[in-house]
């Protein structure tokens, strides 16, 4: 039963990451649900195997980010760099929401970081609350017409874009190892805020220019 619950909530969490990633860049997630739902289940199964079968949970964020990037690349048919930016922005946004809720759950004594890491009731509560919040925000963003609509099809090699590429890759690596700071939630939240604001800044600049 615990295995089924873990996979179900992990699937919801994965789907929420796709939802906010697509919505922030004005892609209609409903149009891609036939691809997103199966890959969300498969990624949830992979998460379960990594966490509980081969005990390599520390690699989950990096593997997840790689899979998100590749799936977005093949599904949306955009540039690999554009896919990386979409994936990192969505992933960082979800981390921001999750960390805020986890901090609140810890302050109220409902769940601790250790309980969430163990994949028990604390994880289910955090996953349900944060995923539903992200899905609701994604729905509101899309319905209200917010998001970035610049082209992600091509990435021209020039000084500014190479700087963006380097910083995006650095952000990718930072997000992959952010779990190491799980006992310092305020620091994780601060880093997540900085990452999201920076990625929004990049997106706003791209909105006014082209790759």
UniProtKB/TrEMBL annotation:
The chain crosses the membrane at residues 6-25, 32-51, 57-76, 83-103, 123-142, 162-180, 186-204. It comes from the Bacteria. Keywords: Membrane, Transmembrane, Transmembrane helix. This is Uncharacterized protein. It comes from Thermobacillus xylanilyticus. The gene is txxe 261-M1_3069.
